[in-house]
Write a structure and sequence with these properties.
ABC_transporter-like_CS, transport, 35% helix, binds adenosine-5'-triphosphate, 291 residues, alpha/beta, 14 strands, ABC_transporter-like_ATP-bd, 10 helices, single chain, 2 domains, Rossmann fold, Alpha-Beta Plaits
Length: 291
């Protein structure tokens, strides 16, 4: 569907994106794009959409109108009700458009239709743009930080809705997000970017096994827990956590039994994208695993 090869994007003297190894997106892929601030995620999305000046090759069998995008920031007129914004952007009437009616009801948006844009809450504003994106029914859809700035509960609700909407569809999705738990439920591939370069790209579960092992057990980072877990293989982790790599069932059982015996709370995961990406970036930057 899309093959990206030897692509470079420069802003003045800055090389914002540099992709050497070919990346390909297949129909139906659900791709999570992650990386620190300034890693090049939005530039990557814009480049596939043809919105940057790039060197290199982006081959696709899709027409421009077969790609839809939800960008990070959106602005709409405040002069008219949301209903009229929708109808004028889409050049349709809600009462004559069944897909639009379905989306409005699916996203519980009826009560917002008669409000002005500025009167919508953050979550409602995002739902407006999501509806405008989804109604296009494009085969390739980009979401760039669709839940940014929303509280935890609103984010969860919105993501569950998206998961439900796309459950039985073949749409290819590229989702840029800093919220790893959202990606855990929605994507099966991960692209990790760092300083404009590709750290890794592939199946989410394979990347997890490559960088973390079979499972990861996390405990709070305290001196006591550090002492108790000192004989196990540690991974890089956010500062407040100790992450233990379990390469097989036996190690996992040994660690769990020890932690239960010591009455220590722990979390087991076989898809922790945050810890996977920290370790992928660490390896990419030449670091090794912790002792
Ligand atoms: N229009 C622009 N002009 C100049 N530099 C830009 C422009 N857009 C992005 N950049 C720079 O290119 C780099 C990549 O930016 P980009 O927005 O793609 O990162 P990002 O990973 O999406 O970041 P964030 O998570 O903060 O949204 C950054 O250093 C940014 O400052």
């Amino acid at each position: 569907m899309v093959i990206i090869n030897q692509v470079r994007v420069r802003y003045g003297n800055q090389l914002a994106l540099s992709i050497d190894t070919p990346l390909s997106f297949k129909a139906g892929d659900r791709i999570g794009i992650i990386g620190s601030n300034g890693a090049g995620k939005s530039t990557f999305v814009k480049t596939i959409l043809g919105l940057t000046n790039y060197q290199g090759s982006i081959a696709t069998d899709l027409k421009p109108e077969e790609m839809a995008v939800h960008m990070q920031h959106n602005h709409y007129s405040n002069a008219m009700a949301v209903k009229h914004i929708m109808e004028s952007i889409l050049n349709t009437k809600i009462k004559k458009n069944e897909i639009l009616q379905d989306l409005i009801s699916f996203f519980d948006f009826e009560e917002c239709l008669h409000k002005k844009y500025s009167a919508l809450s953050g979550g409602q504003k995002q739902r407006l743009t999501i509806i405008l994106v989804l109604v296009q029914d494009a085969p390739l859809v980009f979401f760039d930080e669709v839940t940014s700035g929303l509280d935890f509960e609103t984010r969860q609700k919105l993501m569950s809705k998206l998961v439900e909407w796309y459950r039985n569809k073949t749409t290819t999705l590229c989702i840029v997000s800093h919220y790893y738990e959202e990606l855990e439920q929605l994507v099966n591939n991960i692209l990790i970017l760092e300083k404009g370069q590709v750290v890794d790209f592939g199946d989410k579960d394979e990347l997890f096994r490559k960088y973390c092992g079979k499972t990861v057990i996390t405990v709070d980072n305290t001196p006591e827990n550090e002492e108790i877990t000192k004989n196990f293989l540690k991974l890089e982790a956010p500062g407040h956590l100790i992450a233990l790599s379990c390469q097989n069932d036996q190690t996992e059982k040994d660690i769990a039994e020890l932690l239960i015996r010591k009455d220590i709370n722990f979390r087991r995961s076989n898809n922790n994208i945050e810890i996977m990406s920290i370790n992928a970036k660490n390896k990419f930057n030449g670091g090794g695993k912790r002792d």
